[in-house]
Amino acid sequence: MNVLRVGITGYGLVGTRRHGVVDNLPNAKVVAISDIKFDETPTERNGIRYYRHFDQLIEDEIDVLFVCLPNDVAPDVTIAGLEHGLHVFCEKPPGRTVADIRRVIAVEQQHPRSKLKYGFNHRYHGSVRDALNIVQAGELGKVLSLRGLYGKSAMIPWPRRSSLADAEPSNALWRTSRESSGGGILLDQGIHMVDLMRAFAGGEFTQVMSIVRNTYWNHDVEDNAYALMSTSDGVVAMMHSTATQWRHTFALDISLAQGALQLSGILSGTRSYGQESLTTAYRDDADQGMPREQRTTYIRDTSWNDEVVDFFDAIENNTTITIGTSDEALKTMELVYQIYCADDEWRDRFQLSVD
Can you give the pTM of this predicted structure? Predict the structure, then answer.
């Protein structure tokens, strides 16, 4: 069996989690890691080489690159990986702006042998997969509307400088700095809900209205975003992405012609979003608003493993990436920025554009 040599750049919470998943695969091995917390002089322990700087890592003998870096750095590192002929897995979001992902796609097209996948992890959760199967099979008829809430109690400022040119530790809080992050709760967490709504709607949202605010935490990025959207086929979606949800919440309700789906909770590392479940309601003219329901709960989160397995399968078999493609990342980022720009005050204040 050909064992793929893996390098990970950015070794925080997500980087270490990706490392753990790769360790369990028979066809891959982590051989190199870079992070600004390591010493300037490269070291080797247990067969893994540790670098402080990404440009040292990328010159190592690796086949696959995992990019687990802040938003302002991730696009350039992804591009560098592609230009070195590597297969690249990059965490969401794909960058700070729509222009970032378009730059990546332009380079990706020049390197068709390299696989590129983005980590839209929620697509791999059990409740989401089962709900998508029901919708796509047409079991409950067409989708009429969606209502989603994804919120946590704060925007966690990450105390790390993210510049490649000057990667010394500092007190810069990149998650709450527009210059480093590009956006707040909507771009950081709400992007998952945006991605899911696009998937369940079955088409792109062509009409978008929004209210975007940063009046509670007072960072220069949003702590609340409210959106009302419609597809050309008339599927309407309402979404709230928030950093003032004191009880962490994930909820997505989908109304269909012959029933409804309710996704509640999501299995996460903190387990703070509650029990993950999918409730399926079956409409009947005689149910008087109390339809027959079936509830499924999920006790194991295999999403991180399944997502990475899909990536390595595509590499090994030279098949097309189907979930987390650069095209999907582009469309999701475009919708995020449509939400930003639909609020005239927010758009003008930060001079934002979808282009």
Answer: 0.94
Poorest-pLDDT segment among 79-93, 153-167, 316-330: 153-167
Q: CA-to-CA distance for 341 and 212, rounded, in angstroms?
A: 9
Question: What is residue 122's DSSP assignment?
Answer: G
Residue keyed to tokens 């982590």: 30
d(CA 355, CA 352): 9
Residue 57, H or E segment: helix 54-57
150 exposed, middle or buried (CB, 10 Å; 0-12, 13-18, 19+)? buried
The confidence band for 155, taking pLDDT boundaries of 50, 70 and 90, is confident
For residue 259, what are the CA distances in angstroms to 97, 98, 115, 133, 202? 37, 36, 39, 14, 17
- Label each residue of the chain as H, E or C: CCCEEEEEECCCHHHHHHHHHHHCCCCEEEEEEECCCCCCCCEEECCEEEECCHHHHCCCCCCEEEECCCCCCHHHHHHHHHHCCCEEEEECCCCCCHHHHHHHHHHHCCCCCCCEEEECHHHHCHHHHHHHHHHHHCCCCCEEEEEEEEECCCCCCCECCCCCCCCCCCCCEHHHCHHHHCCCHHHHHHHHHHHHHHHHHCCCEEEEEEEEECCCCCCCCCCEEEEEEEECCCCEEEEEEECCCCCCEEEEEEEECCEEEEEECCCCCCCCCCCEEEEEEECCCCCCCCCEEEEEEECCCCHHHHHHHHHHHHHHHCCCCCCCCHHHHHHHHHHHHHHHHHCHHHHHHHCCCCC
Q: What does the pLDDT average to over 27-35? A: 96
Least confident of 16-25, 221-230, 281-290: 281-290
Helix (H) / strand (E) element for 21: namely helix 13-23
> Greater confidence, 32 or 155?
32
